[in-house]
Specification:
The complex is a heterodimer.
Chain A lengths: L14 H5 L3 E3 L5 E4 L2 E4 L17 E6 L3 H6 L9 E4 L3 E4 L3 E3 L10 H9 L14 H4 L12
Parallel strand pairs in A: 1-7
Antiparallel strand pairs in A: 1-2, 3-4, 4-5, 6-7
Chain B lengths: L1 H17 L2 H14 L4 H25 L3 H44 L3 H18 L2 H12 L4 H9 L3 H9 L9 H16 L2 H12 L7 H33 L6 H47 L13 H19 L4 H27 L2 H4 L6 H27 L5
Classes of the chains: A alpha+beta, B mainly alpha.
Chain lengths: 147, 409
Amino acid sequence: MTSDNHRQSLRWLDAHLHLLDRQVLDVHGVPVAVVDDLELSDIPAGLEIPRDAPMPTITALLSGPTLATRIFGGRPPKSRMLRTPWVAVREVGVVIKLSVGRDTRDLSWTERWVRDHVIGRIPGGRHTPKGEESDHAQSNDRGGGAS
Amino acid sequence: MKRVFGLALGILTAIGGFVDIGDLVTNAVVGSRFGLSLAWVVVVGVLGICVFAQMSGRVAAVSGRATFELIRERLGPRLAVMNLGASFLINLMTLTAEIGGIALALQLVSSVNYLLWVPFSAIAVWLIIWRVKFKIMENVAGLVGLCLIGFAVGLFLLGPDWDELGRQVLQKVSTGTEKTSTYWFYAVALFGAAMTPYEVFFFSSGAVEEGWTTKDLAESRANVLVGFPLGGVLSLAIAGCAAVVLLPELIGVTTLSQVMLPVAMAGGKLLLAFIILGVVAATAGAALETTLSAGYTIAQFLGWPWGKFRPPAQAARFHLLMMVCLLIGLGTLMTGVDPIQVTELSVVFSAVALPLTYLPILIVANDPEYMGEHVNGRALNGIALVYLVIILAAALAAIPLLIITGAGQ
């Protein structure tokens, strides 16, 4: 927890209790992913760790198709994981809030593909249902808050 | 004034929204076979759904988290994926049953075979989800669903022997040839129908959809605590009608028209028309709720953007998933499977999935990190724990009873 962005850096975080399986929201309150795994800074494998070596830190939150591997064991290839750098984390609470917008490149390809090829092409697919907008003016930072 | 109106509207919607095809069919079947001797299950079930629905609503209002996000956070991926699988399949079954219910009700009006109404119903459900505002969708279905009050009216018009009905409520074991195991099988089914998990998925996700905050807590509590019990009264009226007319004649309920037969006898065509309208609205409302719940559960589990308040393109996978679910339901019905049987099975399987759904809600409702000062009180926790025991017992008993009784045959 080296990042200055992290306001609550003095609080204990239990990786299992506070990070894994938490919902990640971007700066606009749009769900990005659920934390499936954590990326830690390298600990050299097989070498003896010097006594004064720095503690490993969390470098990124990982999301991806880990469901099967967390249940049955193993690990999916790194290329399939969606990586959210730890410096982008603004707040760890009941949800993990990011300080960045959800860039289109970060959207997993399935969401993008479904949007561009299926949902976006059906008439009305890009419109908000009538009158919905006004109800969600103040709910930006809540769980399913409006974008 | 606006608040009072909102409250009244909420309560009315809760009454109309509580009864779905599962409650309609199960209550009528039970009434026609056991009279009112299982009425206590409806009371227990209604109290249970009140406790947990208002808890999940409060969690959603205070923390902004819907139920399935919590299920994954608190149970971990292994147990949660089991729950997701079970809930999703049951939800799909319920969805199928509800669409079948709309089609069967429309068949009664039109004399056109229900299979022709099935695609129409599924497309109508999809269009409503695609375009209609959440609040309007909820209110219209709930208010028109109030027509089901016709069952209560019908019961009074039938002029039953109230003492006899009272005796049925108090006598513990069934009359005549029914076995004890069948009695308990239907007890579990009624309990499952009253406490169907999709109700809390929908209720908590709906709270997020409507952007509830702590200010809305009192209103939501009133909706639940008044609306659901009155919905339970409707359920009892359905069972009562069947008990008065069908039980003495030994007519078992196997079709939707038999559910409505007592009302038609009591109130004639006009009341029947009223009831059919109510059934269409109630099943359509429940079809919307189960379709949305299918999307909510998976999207919340996997962290996808979800919600009707977003344009569909911003919750693309959520909307695609709901379309696929509707198509599966449509396809299942088109095979000619009897929607009433699907309904009966779905309420029993609902009972199986109850513990894994309600436990995480209770845990999080006690977590100050989420709830701040709005954590559960002791009395509520006491009641909820008692319910967890009942729920667990019902869940464990459901499958064995299903097998022993041959699905209540």
